[in-house]
């Protein structure tokens, strides 16, 4: 590798090379056994004489930091001791982040592995057709090698946008075409693109309470005033929307985390509110591909006649979170601005992944995968609901849910603090759950648990719930 040493204005060149190499070795940037650059090559790189470099190398060898091997070169000694954290010079830096970042916590929900994993937001990677995807990716990479690499349309490749538009039209009744689609790196970027286009710092955006925390933090980081609005058994309480709200973010088909779906009456009320106030509606349809009960209500976007709804979707739940692919379907009036916002954010999403996903959808593999996973998740959903109703009736009230990858149960006569204690003790038993109070933007008095069934095998569900019952 190249080795950087600043010698401009330095008098003792050998000494400076020595100090820089010694520091690099002590900080383990050059690890024991790794070679130093040949003295001739380093001298040429630094525009100094070979003797200057040799003097530095000889000093390092004399002090035991490196060893020379005849005919092989100079290597970092196995006995070179690293600098400890307590003795290493630390520089705090004069720059300080904005205050908004003190309230954002990095995700830790998935940091600790669990034998019985009921955490939400995780599909079962074992159900994913890895071999099919690998073949599709191989073909895509071969075509990419022949075509060469150039930057693409920020909105995404036309083939994928067309495939997405057809899929959501058939599966969800969403109206729009390929030109309305912006391919993004997951839901978070779709929301980022939308609020950059729609809202200015200081304006108000409403979110569900309780709700998905990352969008709340995203909106605040962009300078928006985030207002929580309560959710009941019919979804977002439209009458509780405050004045001067410029947009509202909702999950109407399977509210996160309560799992309820917004009633048709409430959907019409929300659309009428947006029309009356001139506000935008951001509809996150994050996991409605998985449906186990009655026919789902129409997406908000399909009921919208004035172009006020932006529809956000993701492949993280239906395929794999690691793919980081999502999309947003925007009203025609936002097409150009949304493409510009995506461009200034990161230009475009990985073209290799886009091309493979387009073939995966168009070739029918995606539909087959959804059919298979729907059947499996339906069985897990029914099993968890049955066990909760049978063995936890005195502890929890299960909220109705007929879609998605999680079930929520409200606690009877227990506080959020007691449920948090249950969560901690369950973790010691190898059972990972999430608690309802953690989804509230402000301190919540609602106590309950949120149980995902995407990551846990059907054969482990009853034992996991038995351990949870024992802890309670």
Task: Give the tags.
single chain, 14 helices, 39% helix, four-stranded antiparallel beta sheet
Report on the structure:
This protein has helices spanning 13-26, 39-46, 50-62, 130-147, 158-172, 186-198, 213-221, 264-277, 300-303, 335-346, 351-362, 365-391, 416-428, 458-471; strands spanning 66-69, 73-76, 116-117, 181-184, 204-209, 225-232, 235-236, 245-250, 280-284, 309-314, 326-329, 396-398, 406-411, 431-432, 434-435, 448-452. It is an alpha/beta fold and 472 residues long. The chain has an 8-stranded mixed β-sheet, sandwiched between helices. A 4-stranded antiparallel β-sheet has the order 12-13-16-15. Helix 2 packs across helix 3 and helix 5 (158-172) packs across helix 11. The longest helix is centred in the C-terminal third of the chain and has 27 residues, at 365-391. It is globular.
Total number of beta strands: 16
The proportion of strand residues reads: 5-15%
Shape: globular
Task: Estimate percent helicity.
Answer: 25-40%
Number of helices: 14
- Please compute the radius of gyration using only Cα atoms: 28 Å
Chain-wise SSE layout:
Layout: H1 13-26, H2 39-46, H3 50-62, E1 66-69, E2 73-76, E3 116-117, H4 130-147, H5 158-172, E4 181-184, H6 186-198, E5 204-209, H7 213-221, E6 225-232, E7 235-236, E8 245-250, H8 264-277, E9 280-284, H9 300-303, E10 309-314, E11 326-329, H10 335-346, H11 351-362, H12 365-391, E12 396-398, E13 406-411, H13 416-428, E14 431-432, E15 434-435, E16 448-452, H14 458-471
Parallel strand pairs: 3-14, 5-6, 5-8, 8-9, 9-10
Antiparallel strand pairs: 1-2, 4-11, 6-7, 10-11, 12-13, 13-16, 15-16
